[in-house]
Structure formats: structure tokens, C-alpha cells
Design goal:
The chain is built from three helices and five strands, in the order αββββααβ. It has 102 residues and is of the alpha+beta class. The chain has two domains: 38 residues; 55 residues, no CATH class. It has a three-stranded antiparallel beta sheet with strand order 1-2-5. Strands 3-4 form a two-stranded antiparallel ribbon.
Length: 102
């Protein structure tokens, strides 16, 4: 049977471990609350909805072959392209396979 001193030492160690775990829990809870309060980013459209997305650039109408792709290290969606004249210009000029002329 452990002595009183051993039990007190183990108890102190367990209390310290509990403090560390509770601190981590508090930090994670705060992070969850912070993330939960942020607006939800639009997700990439499903492939079947691509038919409804298009844009006009320099007189040509363009549609999409994929719901999203990576450009310059960033994941962009077809909706992102529709919302950005700069992305439209870049993808058309570079002839990126995500778009097609309609």
C-alpha cells in the first residue's frame, strides 16, 4: 500500500496535469467559438450546377469544366471566378482548363 507521501505526490502531479488539460480545453473552446462566429465561406459548387455559371470576358462567353481548381497556390471555385474580373482575365489569358468558351 502506498504511503501518504506517495499519494500526496501523485495527487499533486494529477492536479497539475488536470490544470494543463483544462487550459488546453479552454483554448480549444475559445477557438471553436471564434471560428463559429465567422461567416461560412461559400463552398465550391457541385459539378451539376456548373451549367448555371458563366461570365463574359471581352465579348466572349465562358463556362466551366470543373467546380474548382488551384491557381497560384490558392483553391478557387467557379463562383470565385464569376465574382472576380481579375480572375476571369487571368484564366482566359492563360487558357486555364477550368474554363471553356461557350
Amino acid at each position: 500500500m502506498p504511503t501518504k507521501a506517495v499519494l500526496e505526490t501523485e495527487n499533486a502531479e494529477l492536479k497539475e496535469e488536470l490544470k494543463r488539460v483544462l487550459l488546453v480545453n479552454t483554448r480549444l473552446t475559445e477557438e471553436i467559438e471564434k471560428l463559429s462566429s465567422q461567416p461560412v465561406k461559400k463552398s465550391a459548387p457541385a459539378a451539376h450546377s456548373l451549367i448555371n455559371l458563366s461570365f463574359v470576358y471581352e465579348g466572349g462567353k465562358f463556362g466551366f469544366t470543373a467546380p474548382f481548381m488551384h491557381v497560384n497556390g490558392s483553391k478557387i471555385s467557379a463562383q470565385d471566378v464569376c465574382d472576380s474580373k481579375d480572375l476571369q482575365k487571368e484564366l482566359v489569358e492563360k487558357k486555364i482548363g477550368m474554363i471553356k468558351k461557350l
